[in-house]
Amino acid sequence: MVEVALRPRSATGRFLEWHRGLDWPILMAAILLLCAGLLMSLAAGPPAAERLGYSDSFYFVKRQAMFVGAAVIVMVGTSLLERVWARRLAALVFIGALSLMAFILISGQDGVKGAQRWIRLGGFGLQPSEFVKPALIVLTGWLLAQRQMYPKGPWAAITLVFFCVTLGLLLLQPDVGQSALLTAAFIVTFFVSGLPWRWAAVFAGGGAALSGLLYATLPHVRFRINSFINPTDYDTYQIDKAAEAIGRGGLFGVGPGEGKIKSSLPDAHTDFIYAVLGEEFGYIAAAGLIFIFGFIVWKGLRAAARLHDPYPRAAATGLFTLFGLQAVINIAVNVSLIPPKGMTLPFISSGGSSMLGIALTLGLALALIRRGHTSVKG
Predict the structure, then answer these.
(1) Where are the domains of the chain?
(2) Residue range 261-287, pLDDT digits in tens
(3) Which of 50, 73, 185, 220 is the most buried (most CB within 10 A)?
(4) What is the pTM of this model?
């Protein structure tokens, strides 16, 4: 009996534990999104490749297929981790991604559309900010949870330092949209960990002051906000085309591959992929996609809320918030509910760094809510 109790778990035992504890509906819904993204790359990829001058019209389709496979490996592999290893992985990713973000700014590498966000690795461009977001959220949840064990430690101050450094590097790129997304997820994580009202006031005041500063100092931010408020006075070509595509699709769409507006819509394969989906597959498919995103977030937040341990509860809540808000922002831009912002639709848009970063986000979240190594209420 003693020998059996002290014997380490076999690989088969760990796999069975993972298989029984994993939230399979969330994983299957995520894989369904990846399949939908691959389908949409067939619709929007060839026109984008032709418009950008690639000789292979299926360039983006092939890239999407490759990154879909990599995303499944990252998501499933990360979901196997125990909570302590999820935190350790997050720490390593955070240090590495933050270092790369600093290196990009210091080295003065050429940016895309005036932004310094990418580093070239072989034939691919890596965007470190896509990986720093989930890593920071996991570290935030863990650091704030230490207050219960070591209440005299400066855990909140350390967390704020990490957040401010990350936010500062994002704004220096500049990437205002990702900064807003990360800030929202960070505040949610902080709130779930026990956010005092005085901190809430600090966040509200600081956010308002920073928003005003960005509006005053960044011309592209000012243009996007002004064009949203007064669209008749500015060039709103992309938003107008996206609205036209969605309206043209109607209830059932014009049919796969039959969309016309994608050929003249910039970033149709990335930021405005939802408009392409609306034109070719219609309102029902567009609503179905929203339902899948909503299901993942609802199921994830519900599982996180049942956890007793404050670290996985706060971190998983922040990760699912990060995932859901990115989808909300992209779709809201496509339907003209908020000012335009270059942000991908999770698992649907073309983009390797974004897809792998989202896979890491959901993989970490699945690891944290996995049954078997966590205690739950009820």
Answers:
(1) 23-369
(2) 888 888 888 899 999 999 999 999 999
(3) 185
(4) 0.91
